[in-house]
Structure formats: C-alpha cells, structure tokens
Amino acid sequence: MNASHADDLTPKFARTGEGTVLARHTIPQQESLPDTAKQIVDDETMLDGNSRLNLATFVGTWMDDEAKQVYEASFDKNMIDKDEYPQTAAIEDNCWHMLANLWNAPDASESIGTSTIGSSEACMLGGLAFKRRWQQARRAAGKDTSKPNLVMSSAVQVCWEKFCNYFDVEPRLVPISLEHKTLDGYDLEKYVDENTIGVVAIMGVTYTGMYEPVAEIAKALDEIQAKTGLDIPIHVDGASGAMIAPFLQPDLVWDFRLERVHSISTSGHKYGLVYPGLGWVVWRNTQWLPEDLVFQVSYLGGQMPTFALNFSRPGAQVLLQYYMFLRLGFEGYRAVQQASQDVAKYLAEGIAKIGAFELWNDGSDIPVFAWYLKDGHTKNWNLYHLQDRLRMKGWLVPAYPMPDDLTDLTVQRIVVRNGLSMDLAAELLESIETETAYLDALEAAMPVEGQHPAFHH
C-alpha cells in the first residue's frame, strides 16, 4: 500500500496535522491532504466568536444565498485589471454613479468616484484630494505649503489619524463634551486657519452612532469665510450614515446639496450590506479631484486610469454591491435599514428601563447607540464587568472610554446590523437584564485588574 493511500485510510484526527502539533511560524515541510488542511483551518477558526453576535463591529456579517453564489463565481476577478474584466469595470462605474445620485450630486455625469478596499482608503483619498488642491492653491499664490492641517472631531475614526500621520498633515481635534456631543460648528473658528485643507464631518460617529450636523458645520464655515475669506471644504465620512440617511432621513441635508461638501465616502461592507472589504468615494464634481492624483497606467494589455492607494484587489465585492442595489432597490434598502433601526430603538428603550444606565443616544440616527452607568449607581462593578459577563454568553458588546476631554466616561455600545432580528434582540436584552441584576446583587466589589476596552472602531 503506498503512503498516499495509507493517509486516505488513516482516521482524520489521527493524521499528521490533526494528530500532531504543527509549527505555527514555519511552512510545513510536507504536503497534507486537502481535507486535512481544511479540517485544521476549520478547527482553529472554530475558536473565533459567532460573527452575528458581534455587536462591536459595523461590518456586515450576513448575505443571502444568491449573493454567496455571486461571490463564489467572481473570486478570481481583479478589480484593477479593467482590460481583462471590462464589464466588472463598467459595473463599478454604475455603482458609484448610483451613489452620486443617491447623495444628490447636482449632475452625476459630472461627478467622479471609485471603489476602494474599505472606507478607510476612501477617506484617505478624500484627504489627499484636499491636501493636493490646498498645495496647488498655495504654490500659485507663492505661499508656504509645509504646514497643512485637517480639522475633525476628537471622536473621529482612527483612519483619519492614520491619514494625518502617513501624509504629514497636522490633525486638529475639536473635543466633544456633554454639551456638544459631536462636532457641530461650535468654536470652529478657533481651529481653522489658512493652512486648513478641509473639515471632516462624520455621519455616524464610531463611538456612539450620532450624526454630526453637516449643515451646521457648513454654516459655520460660511460665516468664517465671510469674516476671513477662507474657503474651507468638507469631506463627509459617511462610512455608515451615507447608506442610512438617504433611506431613513431623506429630508436631512448633509450631502451634495451643500455646496461646501466636496466629497463623500462610505463603506459598502457596512450598511451597504456587502461582505468585507469594500468602500466608495465620490466627488461632487471632477474639479475637486486634482488631475495629478490620477494615474494613466498600462496594465495587462490596456490603458486605464487609477486613483486608488491599492492596486490589485478583489472585484467580487463590487459585483456584490451591484447585486444588492439590484436585489433591494431603494425601497428594499429602506426596509432593511428601518428594521435595523427598529431593533436599535427597542434595545435602547429596554436598556434605559433597567435603571442602572443612562443613554448617550437612542439609535435614531444610524442604528447604533451607547449608554453609561448612572453616576453613583454602584461601586461594585463597571461596564467592563458587564462586557465580560455578556461575552460568556456569546455576545460581544464593547465597553470603552470616550475620547479626549471625556476619557473618564466609559460607555457601552451596540451596533445593530442586518441579521440581528427582533427575536435575537429580545434574547440579548434578557441577557443584559440578567447580568445587570447579577452584578447589582454583589456584596463586594469585583476586581478591576486586567480590564481593557473591546475593539470599537
């Protein structure tokens, strides 16, 4: 009997790999059977959490069976290779034009956009466009270009801090407070100057889910321009809210209806309802994307423009986005997002009734909300203890400190995504009630050593 046939007959969990401890940091010397390798991967990832019970992440964790078939049929497509996959390229073009129209671009045919790996890359492209236009204007005026700054909330998503770090831009963080829970235009004149390349407005703050009032920020910048002559543009980081507001708050003015909004980004893999990783960025007009950021490259037999940070990347997620646009349409998206918001409001209302907590917000912007312990409620436990108790039941509900000027305040947050049904939400609420009652019944303080925030970005 040859060795290969012997391996076929060996019981699965007695085979090399399953029956031995493999090296973790070196490639194995010999091959293994396909089903053995698969079993090892399955076994190790079995230790991961249940993604649908992960209420920390904004990233989609459920798609229907037909979407999975679209995904499987397009694993091999390279989004950058527009010569080999021209129809996939055309579909990408269709998708960002759909978004330009959804976000009320004055003339979508005059807009320009692209898909990205995620909204972080999309944000960086928006920031780079700001920096390059500012540099060009300063050079034309014979002025210094060495000290660009970008103004944003202290509750900004970490990708903006990365942008400033990687591309040598000074971050100017406007602190939030109990009186000003978001960047709302208050005191904005103290942060902007002739070196300000733009202001970031967030539609769905990561920490809490609240919208920043883009129209109020634009109004404040209008007043600053009237006083100083500084014409400062806005990029809307709509990672979540840009795929919620058009469907649930259509009368809210936050998008290209505001002339000061030059660009908008979103995550297709968040409330765009697509598996990771996919982002989009759209400029209201081609004039706001400097031509020298666009490369004309020869690649695999064709000439093509590109203005992404990444090069080769999956095309499958773009096709999934197109599938979702076709599958749901406007009314389908509205129904899905409304269902998520209904669940968020149900949970927020239930948590507010428990008595131990104060809501920071109630999920009426994006279907995300946060709460904190009532002052003086207890000295025996904190939200990290509740986080850990819920995790023992499979629920990941993160606790973490708020940003600068509010770091002494710890909040806990729930992100409601498509797939968290009202029935599951009732189970979650019951778990929160049960574990809060358990903690309230403690006669001594819980230990606090080793506590740490859960991932919340």
UniProtKB/TrEMBL annotation:
Gene Ontology terms for molecular function: aromatic-L-amino-acid decarboxylase activity; glutamate decarboxylase activity; pyridoxal phosphate binding
Co-factor requirement: pyridoxal 5'-phosphate
Modified residue annotations for N6-(pyridoxal phosphate)lysine: 270
Catalytic reactions of this protein: L-glutamate + H(+) = 4-aminobutanoate + CO2
Xref: SUPFAM superfamilies: PLP-dependent transferases
Superkingdom of this protein's organism: Bacteria
Enzyme Commission (EC) number: 4.1.1.15
Biological process annotations from GO: L-glutamate catabolic process
Sequence similarity: Belongs to the group II decarboxylase family.
Protein name, as recorded: Glutamate decarboxylase
Species in which this protein is naturally found: Microbacterium caowuchunii
